[in-house]
Amino acid sequence: MHQYTEKQIRSIITGLILSIFLGALDQTIVSIALPNISHEFADVKWLSWVISGYLLTSTLATPLYGKLSDLYGRRHLLTWSISIFLVTSVGCALSQSMLMLVVFRLIQGLGGGGLISIAQATVADVIAPRERGRYQGYISGMYAIASVIGPLFGGVLTHSLSWRYIFWINIPIGLVALVISRRALKILPIPHIKKDLDWPGIILLTVSLLCLLTAFTLLGQHGHITQTMLVLLGSSVIGFVLFVFAEQRAVEPVIPLTLLDVREFSVGIRVLFVAFMQILTLTIMVPLELRMVNAMTASDTAWRLLPLSLSVPCGAFVCGQIMTRSGHYKMIQLVSQVVAFMGMVAVAWIPSHYTFPLCVALFVSGVGIGGQFPTTLVAIQNAVPKHTIGIATATTALFRSMGATIGVAVLSSVLLALLQYYLPVGQKMGIDVIKQLMVLPLDSGSAREVFEIASKEAFRWVYMLLALPTIMSIYLVINTKEQVLKTH
After folding, report:
1. Tell me, what's the pLDDT at 223?
2. What is the reported pLDDT for 337?
3. ∠140-142-145 over CA atoms, to 5°?
4. Disulfide check for 220: which of 54, 57, 409, 473 has CB 3.0–4.6 Å away?
5. Per-residue DSSP letters for 366-384?
6. Per-residue confidence at 90, pLDDT binned at 50, 70, 90?
7. How many CB atoms lie within 10 A of CB 488?
8. What is the mean pLDDT of the chain?
9. pTM
10. 3-state class of 231 per DSSP?
């Protein structure tokens, strides 16, 4: 097995971190410009798809990048991923209608899906599991930087120049990432594996995921189940059943079902599903509560969310360092999960106008959630066969994205239902009215006071429901035997 020097590892990690920064920045910088985009195009019907469309296609592309990179090498696939991302960034910046922008965002997601999953798989190629936690901490730190500066940078560009510059800024960053990553990854061996792709499996997986994620995306937007959603969910179930049959017969399956026999893998994907559901839901729900209940401005809510944004990489970095020094991950996972559970319960019961206690609770939640990222990913990569590391890593990224998409959609619907439930009979409001009030809260008066009280109760239950799946994660980890981390 090839051993890489410290200089080579630093060069590779630098290229990978830039790629991850490019993908992570695009997930946060766009949201701040949505009001300006809707105003210029005078179209709000497709506005939510500027974000959800990108997440949808990037999720669909993730397992394909993992499989293809196992067969044809990480360097080539990362180059394609960055190139698609850059070309579509130009298309987004030049869009002349909302529909045109959404189409380019959908295609851009096909490129963005490979930026993060290929980078994390490459880390597994060059760094031993025992040392991997430290570098996963660096990657989580880049996520944090992107999440913090993304909205601030996007706000400055949108306010000073135009919303189109949030896409133009991708070009210089992406070109630097492309040059550095291609140069750094040149030393990686190319597998030269010539096998037929599992096209039936690829098509069935893509269609099934497309139906599933579209159904939950629509659920989060409408707040209730429709006939269209039921048809999509039914189609996804049938598609997944056919996918399992196809994979059992495939010579080179797109997702080897034998991975599910690896306990660390089957447990890890569920743990990461829950963790990403929690972090993204907190990121969305906390600013929404502060706006609805406390009538705060966007900048005020952004500062109060800062402890959560910073604590996630802190937890990942510290737990990665501890794992590297000790060679163990199971106890770190369990402590992180308990800390996350306690933090989210505290967020549920602390009144939102108590700024300092709320920030402390958010910081504790973020540390607990962040601590699960490097420990769970390294446990998975340590347990699966080496030739499946790419697809195993990509599948964990797929489940992380699914957790974020499905969790936010379901809990958004629960929030809307609880708001209707807690409003007095004489003050009941339709879903459309409540959604409008989330963006433009009521002026001062008795109606606003009633809406605030209902909102407090609704958000409390949402946070409690968000914390509950952590109990399942704790149970799964307790019943999983820890493996020794490899040192090569």
Report:
1. 64
2. 92
3. 115
4. 409
5. HHHHHHHHHHHHHHHHHHS
6. very high
7. 7
8. 78
9. 0.76
10. helix
Identify residue 221 by its one-letter amino acid code.
Answer: Q
Indicate whether 204 and 116 sit together in one domain. Answer: no
Residue 435 has pLDDT above 70, yes or no: no
Could you tell me if 51 and 117 lie in one domain? yes
Q: Is 350 helix (H, G, I), strand (E, B) or coil?
A: coil
Range of the domain at 380: 259-488
Q: How many angstroms separate the CA atoms of 472 and 135, rounded?
A: 28
Q: What are the structure tokens assigned to 371, written together?
A: 């601590």
**What are the DSSP calls for 80-110, one per residue?**
HHHHHHHHHHHHHHT--SHHHHHHHHHHHHH
Contacts of residue 217, Cβ cutoff 8 Å, sequence gap at least 6: 52, 56, 405, 409
Query: Could you tell me which of 113, 2, 66, 45 has the C-alpha nearest to residue 384?
Result: 66
Residue with tokens 């992406």: 174
What's the number of domains the chain is made of?
Answer: 3
And the tokens for 165? 């510059």
Over residues 323-374, the pLDDT tens digits come to: 888 878 889 999 999 999 999 999 999 888 888 899 999 999 989 998 888 8
Amino acid at 75: R
- CATH value at residue 317: 1.20.1250.20
